[in-house]
């Protein structure tokens, strides 16, 4: 396969797709699978509760910095060669993470895991677009999206099960068989792509890395150091702004910038970046809220939480499989609108959650949200690249993944900050009514109204639960409003139409 346009001549397309998706799911799972194992790691690695979070931070920052350089590395060393190297490196350092004997070694191995894993998701998307004709891009993106979206959903559940039944080390060891099978499949069947030598803009890469790395570090560390009351956060914010600003100026003025600015002339791609940012916020922000809510307020164990949240993944799978088949018949923009409306409906339902509700409300809202997310992700991932020149595809998929991950990080940070702050405010407001002059308190708990310490402690626990529940509901309302605000901008996307090119491959036009 010499060029991305010759996808029709690729044999073993099904086997290639299986191998690509194994690698993609392996990497997507690792974004969340280690989270639930952190408390167990703390004792085994001799780390403090504050320092153990570097296990997550090192991976996130390394992956964020290395994602934008995927396009240049693929052109310089070959897409197939880079993909195989990424899978091998990711698998090896996964094993080393499982064998880590101290916090320092774990952080180092996780950092290298992030370095190698950064290229897996954008390259898998690139190859799926390359090996499928344009009329099958919707189905290809449905398969790819299923792995991307189900990974973070299943990660905490699988991680909790492995940690409880085996050891936290199996959270990383499980990647070995998956990585080996994926490597063998791709080594045997993945077609090679002609290399394209281009100069490396080290200064542009350094400035983008500074901006992305400092931003990710700020978002990940903010909750631990109380955000802008910490000098560290101000320094990281300053470095991030400086890096992005210098990178922007350099990109517009350099002769051969790190990222060709022509890529941003495609309106579908730029609009797709904006929407995938919103999707990143909605996907992981809501997922970051639900497990602690179910654990703290409802007292669910880890495995039960996974079972309760499972239907969300089922809804996503159903929507993706259906949308992938009907995309060529239905305007993709209409599907995106319907998906956002379903997502908003689910968040509206979640805004009515209460400590007295049963599982049905959680299950039904999860299925609806999964359907909505699936209906948005597939057409968005397809239309964003439908009118883009194929030579920009690898750089574009890298940016697509980077923006989605940044949206996820920002969304999780924002809703977490609001949750903590609003819980404190709500607790103060509710506590004001706990006094001996309130007849409702005398009716509910005469002992507490009379000043009994044990009864007051029980009442305070009830106030804490109510304060947290109100804060969770407010976060769900915020995400719902963000979803509704995004809907009108869907029509900035242009509907692609296929037409023949000189070489016989379809080219995209815009109406």
Describe this structure in words.
This protein is an all-alpha fold. It has three domains: 1-200, Up-down Bundle (Growth Hormone, Chain: A); 201-257; 263-511, MFS general substrate transporter like domains (Growth Hormone, Chain: A), CATH 1.20.1250. Helix content is 72%, strand content 2%. It contains 20 helices and two strands. The chain has helices at residues 13-29, 38-44, 54-66, 70-77, 79-99, 103-117, 120-131, 137-165, 170-173, 175-189, 202-221, 231-253, 267-296, 302-326, 332-350, 359-386, 393-431, 439-444, 446-449, 453-486; strands spanning 496-500, 506-510. The protein has a two-stranded antiparallel ribbon. A hairpin with a 5-residue loop joins strand 1 (496-500) and strand 2. Helix 3 packs antiparallel against helix 11 (202-221) and helix 13 (267-296) packs antiparallel against helix 20. The protein is globular. The relative contact order is 0.12. It is found in: Cell membrane. Keywords: Cell membrane, Membrane, Transmembrane, Transmembrane helix, Transport. Residues 16-498 form the Major facilitator superfamily (MFS) profile domain.
Output the keywords.
Growth Hormone, Chain: A; disordered N terminus; 20 helices; about 500 residues; MFS_dom; transmembrane transporter activity
